[in-house]
């Protein structure tokens, strides 16, 4: 089976997914074959040069001219272009892999999840951190009951790329384009990991701040910042565990501190993306934490890469998620995280925002 793939978007995420597709035949020979058929972007000259670099045959400047010609649409554009092209593709049973957060708004996410439900195609959200070998190993240990009954999840994703007021304005600072700031961008990853590892959330209490209210655009102008720079939230899980979430893009000195800690009645684990080949684990038989180097053949996905003992990197998460997503299409199976998981994360983002503005805990219990 050869799948014709179209990408909407060609910058950071376009590069990450194109790299993943190029690695698949070398390292995951069982993955279905992919033909990078069309790349979509607004500016013809830029999209053409990206197509040459990323290995696409054809370019289009309007997504409507491309979505129906492919088997799979990768929606890698800014959040505000997630909804319409995705819904149109799903209506035509074109499979969709969409970057996170699912949509800029909860309504948009609901529309996308409904389109996925009504479609015969597979719809996945690219929450790539689920596909870190260390996180997959932690999930294996959790599911095997090694940590007992889970009491606490702590997740933080601190970045400092906008710590300086002179750091450039991007679409991520604009509510109309992004929907939300740190909470929807890095917070969505933490929320998805919390759901993946511990379960659904029951209620949240959120706090958002914008510290820098305008930023330079690069052409001598300044634009207002209409999204949050930082968020934090307390959470209660349906299974009784408690959660603490934090995220920032203005945490001075932080680069990519994506950290997860889980503690249960028998043990727990610590993970940090800054040391992504390691998992620190404590169980009933350890005194404190043991450091596991997640580089063995029997660790998740590691047998596909190098001989035992060799580390891998951030970009490999995209290879793993693409392998699973494309294999689900070829096998007629399911893919997780699906659009339902994307919608669930969006409900939490929305609840954190409402909790902040209403100065109260917000329930996530469904009333239907
Ligand atoms: C910017 O904060 C960003 O690129 C996020 O959008 C990604 O999802 C994250 O993985 C890295 O940082």
From TrEMBL:
<dbReference type="Pfam" id="PF22725">
    <property type="entry name" value="GFO_IDH_MocA_C3"/>
</dbReference>
<dbReference type="InterPro" id="IPR050463">
    <property type="entry name" value="Gfo/Idh/MocA_oxidrdct_glycsds"/>
</dbReference>
<dbReference type="InterPro" id="IPR000683">
    <property type="entry name" value="Gfo/Idh/MocA-like_OxRdtase_N"/>
</dbReference>
<dbReference type="GO" id="GO:0000166">
    <property type="term" value="F:nucleotide binding"/>
</dbReference>
<feature type="domain" description="Gfo/Idh/MocA-like oxidoreductase N-terminal">
    <location>
        <begin position="4"/>
        <end position="126"/>
    </location>
</feature>
<dbReference type="InterPro" id="IPR055170">
    <property type="entry name" value="GFO_IDH_MocA-like_dom"/>
</dbReference>
<keyword id="KW-0560">Oxidoreductase</keyword>
<dbReference type="GO" id="GO:0016491">
    <property type="term" value="F:oxidoreductase activity"/>
</dbReference>
<protein>
    <submittedName>
        <fullName>Dehydrogenase</fullName>
    </submittedName>
</protein>
<feature type="domain" description="GFO/IDH/MocA-like oxidoreductase">
    <location>
        <begin position="136"/>
        <end position="269"/>
    </location>
</feature>
<dbReference type="InterPro" id="IPR036291">
    <property type="entry name" value="NAD(P)-bd_dom_sf"/>
</dbReference>
<dbReference type="Pfam" id="PF01408">
    <property type="entry name" value="GFO_IDH_MocA"/>
</dbReference>
């Amino acid at each position: 089976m050869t799948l014709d793939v179209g990408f909407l978007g060609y910058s950071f995420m376009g590069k990450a997914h194109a790299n993943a597709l190029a690695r698949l035949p070398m390292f995951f020979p069982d993955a279905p074959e992919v033909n990078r058929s069309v790349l979509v972007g607004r500016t013809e000259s830029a999209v053409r040069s990206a197509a040459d670099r990323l290995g696409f045959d054809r370019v289009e400047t309007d997504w409507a001219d491309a979505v129906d010609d492919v088997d799979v649409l990768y929606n890698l554009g800014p959040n505000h272009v997630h909804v319409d092209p995705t819904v149109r593709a799903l209506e035509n049973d074109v499979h969709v892999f969409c970057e996170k957060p699912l949509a800029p708004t909860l309504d948009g996410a609901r529309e996308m999840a409904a389109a996925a439900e009504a479609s015969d195609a597979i719809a996945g959200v690219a929450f790539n951190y689920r596909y870190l070998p260390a996180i997959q190993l932690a999930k294996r240990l959790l599911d095997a009951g090694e940590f007992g009954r889970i009491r606490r999840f702590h997740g933080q994703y601190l970045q400092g790329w906008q710590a300086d007021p002179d750091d450039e304005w991007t679409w991520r600072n604009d509510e109309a384009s992004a929907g939300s700031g740190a909470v929807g961008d890095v917070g969505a990853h933490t929320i998805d990991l919390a759901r993946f590892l511990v379960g659904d959330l029951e209620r949240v209490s959120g706090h958002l701040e914008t510290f820098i209210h305008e930023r330079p655009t690069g052409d001598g102008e300044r634009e207002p910042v209409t999204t949050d720079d930082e968020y934090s939230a307390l959470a209660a899980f349906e299974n009784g565990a408690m959660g603490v979430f934090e995220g920032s893009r203005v945490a001075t000195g932080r680069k990519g501190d994506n950290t997860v800690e889980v503690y249960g009645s028998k043990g727990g684990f610590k993970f940090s993306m800054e040391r992504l080949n390691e998992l620190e684990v404590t169980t009933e038989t350890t005194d404190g934490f043991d450091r596991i180097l997640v580089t063995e053949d029997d660790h998740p996905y590691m047998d596909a890469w190098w001989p035992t003992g060799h580390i891998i990197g951030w970009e490999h998460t995209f290879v793993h998620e693409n392998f699973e997503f494309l294999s689900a299409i070829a096998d007629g199976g399911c893919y997780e995280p699906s659009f339902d998981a994307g919608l669930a994360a969006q409900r939490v983002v929305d609840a954190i925002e409402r909790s902040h503005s209403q100065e109260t805990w917000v329930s996530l219990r469904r009333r239907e």
